[in-house]
Amino acid sequence: MLSRRLLLASLTTTAMALSVTAPAQAADKVIKVGTLKLIHGITPYFYDKFTPAGYKIEVIPFETPTDGKNAVVTKSVDFGTYGLAAATLGAAAGEPVVIVAPTCNGGMAIMVGKNSGIGNFKALKGKRVGILPGSTQEAVFLDRLKAEGMTLKDVKSVRVSFSEMAGALERGDIDGYVGAEPGPSISAIRGVGKVLEFPYSTPTGKVNMVMTTHADTVKSDPELTKVFLEIHRKASEYAMAHRPELVQMAGAKLGLPADVANLAADNVELTWKIDQDWINRSKYYGSLMLERKQIRKLPDYSSFIVTGFNPK
């Protein structure tokens, strides 16, 4: 019979052997996703519902499209969503950023003070208009000015971030703004602003936010890209089909009251599919930026818009 000491020694040796031979539990692959603090950047917050085993989502919010684009370029995030303008600016400048999916169409509005007396687009002449330079909204607004026979010199452009536009209008710092949801809905619900127009009549249409990644990612880790885009597809479709949950998420992540989130959702189309119509509108948008000398050359669209991983 083994003595107590020998028995304990035997058990300890066995335990150590098992600890050495047992396979270590692999840690989940963390996918870092950057998004803007806007309701049309809400989709990443639904990713957890559709993330397969072995992966984990970490959402990182950004204030401006440029911040989001820079995070992708520096690989601070694996994927990032922001406006088409910032992505086009980066790619045209030779930065290694590529589009792998749309994220949201719409989400824009030209707002004016409720009692401003501004009743049509031409009435913006001489008015203080809040605009975020380098945004998709700016490019669309410039196209609308051109259609009306106007230029940016016909208005008093004021640089304002999206999150500050509703407050600036309410304080009277500006007469109107070219905004992104939920700013327009906040102004409307508070009774201080009204929609002058939804600027979707240009050839750009509703094209707005895109999902991007570093060019290295699609080459070196195509499996990650496929997995991520399937998550993105399912989350986009789910959020669009479940309005109450979208409104609840906007409250939890963006601090939006339910009435504001619900109104803003009417102006937001969460999406994931790259089709030829979307590509044509995106290319038109790039041509506008070139025409206005916002970029020196067009991106190489054959590599800038990556369609091979788009879910079927």
How many helices does DSSP assign?
12
Give the structural class. Answer: alpha/beta
Major sheet description: 6 strands, mixed
Give the total of domains: 2
- Report helical residue fraction: 40-55%
State the CATH architecture of the largest domain.
3-Layer(aba) Sandwich
Tell me what portion of residues adopts beta-strand conformation.
15-25%
CATH topology of the largest domain: D-Maltodextrin-Binding Protein, domain 2
Radius of gyration: 24 Å
Q: Main sheet: which strands, in order across?
A: 2-1-3-10-4-11
Distance between the termini: 68 Å
CATH class placement of the largest domain: Alpha Beta
Q: Count of DSSP E strands?
A: 11
Low-confidence stretches: 17-24
Shape by Cα distribution: globular
Secondary-structure element series: HEEHEHEEEHEHEHEEHHHHEHH
Q: What's the rounded overall pLDDT mean? A: 91
Provide structural commentary.
- There is one protein chain.
- The chain is α/β, with parallel strands linked by helices and 312 residues long.
- The protein has two domains: 29-105 and 206-304, 3-Layer(aba) Sandwich (D-Maltodextrin-Binding Protein, domain 2); 108-197, D-Maltodextrin-Binding Protein, domain 2.
- The chain is built from twelve helices and eleven strands.
- It has helices spanning 4-21, 65-73, 84-92, 136-147, 162-171, 183-189, 215-220, 222-241, 243-254, 258-265, 276-291, 301-304, and strands at 29-36, 55-62, 79-83, 97-106, 108-113, 128-131, 156-159, 176-180, 193-197, 207-214, 268-270.
- The strands form two sheets. A six-stranded mixed beta sheet has the order 2-1-3-10-4-11.
- Mean pLDDT is 91; it is low at 17-24.
